[in-house]
Design brief:
The structure holds two protein chains of two kinds. By secondary structure, chain A is an alpha/beta fold. In chain A, 34% of the residues lie in helices and 29% in strands. In chain B, 65% of the residues lie in helices and 5% in strands. The chains are: A alpha/beta, B mainly alpha.
């Protein structure tokens, strides 16, 4: 286990969210065991873990809807508990289940939750219109949500969390059960929120989403935060290397000999249609590799870089695949 | 504002649910009508059919005599068969059939047979005595005249003159009626009046209890948790639910009251008092419903418990059988039910009670509502934020 708070010591802005030693048990089952992390303004933090890892329990405590057994959650400098209300205006929580009123229209749902956030009058009407625009539901604003597709409901579910322009947006598995088109749209929305300065806590068990969206990632398993850092930091922690496959012809063996001598290149070897190797940092070394191969009389026709991903990190840390 | 917003959304959802509209608005009126038909009439007028030759002066006298009885309402039929059908299907309690030339036949000593038909049960057979009394009074001079004809050997006209001269001078024995104790029902209680009040109380509370399913649905959909994730406290959330359920229950009560007044002519006696009682009952019902909804039961279990509790408490509270007819032990138990306090309040109003007379009923019902709502709030806080 790492010490996550130390990784933020160089950050300049005070964190939007600070979680310290958060704990929750259900009887004998320890759902969350002492997790700690911080999120800075404009940062997208991914909480990655398999189903049942404790992500939702942690998220619900952080959103102030579930009482923690111990630990502390601070949002924008204010401590959050289930009993406090004012600090919750800094948070936009998007639950995993779609929490909408079926018999109300999209506009009515947004207006209702806007009122719950303390909005009213013209600011409320303006925000409702903006969120309808953002979620692409303007044309269906007057329709009852019971008539919506799963993707539309999911988008509206997220839109409700954005109504009051919170400092911290908490998204709990927002893309579960949606089609690819809606998923892409949701991920674009989240990226846009981050670019606007909103801090995002994003939980998922989809590695590709975390890799696409999140600046930092916390890996949670059995209620424990087992690793945390940027993607590169995490990969480095477990010593993974990039796999580079080069399609080439010409003096292949000579080329292999040349690149083996380069620092950072490992296990280089000829294949039926080119060369394959493991590289410490492909993005950095690739120009030198291609230059060496060219000098050796190798004609490069294609390059494929396979970076180590978080799946490999999870496998390394837990001994099992993320979706087992 | 948040409380009202939660309450308004609660009402909107129910108004937009087609199935609930039948239960809230159609079913209670059907019950008022059916129970009014079945059990109404303790204070209403009993209908007696009249058919045959009603153009004679003697039948005029008999029907005038019957019409003088305030408990009777005479219904005249052109055809005897039509009246028989009315008796058969229960539209009227009984019927009398007058033959033609009754006076002439009595004058010559010919027997006259007056028909009387009734259903085998109900008030019909008892009406035979009422009709016989009316006939006796009208036929008394005819009988005296016939007696004179038979004894003195005079003609009928002479006998009639003698009889009509003597009979009014005869001092008749009269029965002096004196009542003791309290009547079960006010003398002017209409056919639907009692049934309407009972159904009002029964259905309002049933509606309030089954409204707990809205809370269950919200919990299953994560809506209550989502509301609590905003700057909205659990107390405000439950207050909103109570406000919404109060609105729905009270609206149903007003609906039953207005329609029963317009369609069935129910006399609520004291409209202001009745409305206040409905408001207090709505509050107690909403509190009870929300407490039930806070127990984390399934929707089916919530409906089952809600309906069962509503019916049992309704029975104990006197909404099915008037409290006045129940044993003392049950009447004591009724004091622990909102329905009992509401029924006692409506009872007071039906006996021309004032707002002061029902002040204790209003206070107890409102107190029950506040205590139950507070308990619901604590229960929701526990189950929502500290699930086991």
């Amino acid at each position: 286990m790492i010490s996550p708070l130390s990784s933020l010591s160089s950050r300049e802005s005070p964190p939007v969210l600070r979680v310290e030693d958060l704990r929750k048990s259900y009887g004998e089952i320890k759902a969350v065991t002492g997790i700690s992390f911080e999120i800075a303004p404009g940062e997208n933090y991914g909480l990655l873990g398999p189903n049942g890892a404790g992500k939702t329990t942690a998220i619900q405590m952080i959103a102030g809807v579930l009482a923690a057994d111990g630990g502390r959650v601070t949002v924008c400098g204010q401590e959050l508990t289930t009993g406090t209300t004012t600090v919750k205006s800094h948070i936009g929580w998007v639950p995993q289940e779609i929490a909408l009123y079926d018999r109300l229209s999209a506009r009515e749902n947004l207006a209702f939750f806007g009122r719950m956030q303390g909005l009213s009058g013209k600011p409320l009407a303006t925000r409702v219109s903006e969120v309808l625009e953002l979620t692409g539901l303007v044309d269906r604003a007057g329709d009852k949500t019971i008539k919506f597709s799963g993707g539309m409901r999911r988008r509206l579910n997220i839109g409700i969390g954005l109504l009051h322009q919170p400092d911290l947006l908490i998204l709990d598995e927002p893309t579960v059960g949606v089609d690819i088109q809606s998923r892409t749209r949701i991920l674009d929305q989240v990226a846009e929120m981050t670019s606007l300065g909103m801090a995002v806590l994003y939980t998922t068990h989809y590695i590709e989403e975390v890799e696409r969206l999140c600046q930092r990632v916390g890996i949670i398993d059995h209620g424990v935060l087992i690793a945390e850092g940027t993607r590169a930091e995490l990969v480095k922690t477990v010593g993974e290397r990039d796999r580079v496959t080069i399609a080439a012809d010409g003096q292949i063996n000579a080329g292999v000999g040349q690149i083996t001598a380069l620092d950072g290149v490992h296990e280089a070897g000829a294949t039926t249609d080119g060369i394959q190797m493991l590289v410490d940092d492909a993005a950095h070394l690739l120009p030198r590799i291609i230059e060496s191969l060219t000098r050796s009389g190798v004609t490069v026709t294609g390059v494929e870089v396979e970076e180590p991903n978080l799946e490999a990190v999870f496998l390394h840390l837990t001994g099992r695949a993320l979706r087992d | 504002m948040k409380t009202l917003a939660i309450g308004w959304v609660y009402v909107l959802r129910i108004l937009r649910e087609p199935a609930s509209l039948f239960f809230f608005f159609v079913f209670p009126m059907l019950m008022v009508f059916i129970i009014g038909i079945q059990f109404g009439g303790q204070g209403g007028r009993v209908q007696l059919g009249i058919a045959g030759d009603t153009t004679q002066s003697i039948t005029d006298k008999i029907t005038d005599n019957l019409a003088a009885n305030e408990a009777l309402e005479l219904v005249f039929y052109e055809e005897q068969s039509e009246m028989l059908r009315a008796v058969e299907r229960g539209a009227i309690a009984a019927g009398a059939v007058f033959p033609p030339q009754m006076a002439a036949r009595i004058a010559v000593g010919e027997p006259v047979l007056i028909g009387f038909v009734s259903a085998p049960t109900g008030l019909g057979p008892q009406l035979q005595a009422t009709v016989r009394d009316a006939l006796t009074e009208v036929l008394m001079p005819y009988r005296a005249a016939r007696f004179a004809v038979d004894i003195l050997g005079v003609g009928f006209q002479d006998g009639w003159s003698l009889a009509t001269t003597v009979v009014p001078e005869v001092e008749l024995a009269t029965v002096n009626l004196e009542t003791v104790g309290e009547a079960l029902f006010p003398p002017d209680l209409g056919r639907f009046d009692g049934g309407a009040a009972s159904n009002l109380v029964l259905f309002m509370f049933l509606t309030a209890l089954t409204g707990a399913t809205a809370m269950v649905t919200d919990r299953e959909m994560g809506l209550d948790t989502r509301i609590v994730s905003t700057p909205t406290s659990v107390v405000r959330l439950v207050s909103g639910y109570v406000a919404g359920q109060f609105g729905v229950t009270f609206f149903q009560g007003v609906y039953i009251m207005v329609l029963s007044l317009a369609i069935f002519g129910v006399d609520w006696k004291n409209l202001g008092g009745s409305v206040l009682l409905m408001m207090a009952l709505s509050l107690a019902g909403a509190g009870a419903g929300m407490l039930l909804g806070s127990f984390r039961l399934s929707e089916a279990a919530t409906i089952g418990i809600g309906v069962t509790a509503g019916l049992v408490m309704g029975a104990l509270g006197g909404t099915m059988v008037p409290l006045e007819l129940l044993p003392d032990a049950i009447r004591t138990v009724a004091r622990f039910t909102p329905q009992g306090w509401a029924m006692l309040g409506f009872h007071d109003l039906q006996w021309d009670g004032s707002l002061i007379d029902i002040a204790d009923n209003l206070g107890v019902l409102a107190g029950m509502g506040i205590v139950l709502a507070a308990a619901a709030s604590l229960s929701v806080r526990r189950t929502l934020t500290r699930p086991s």
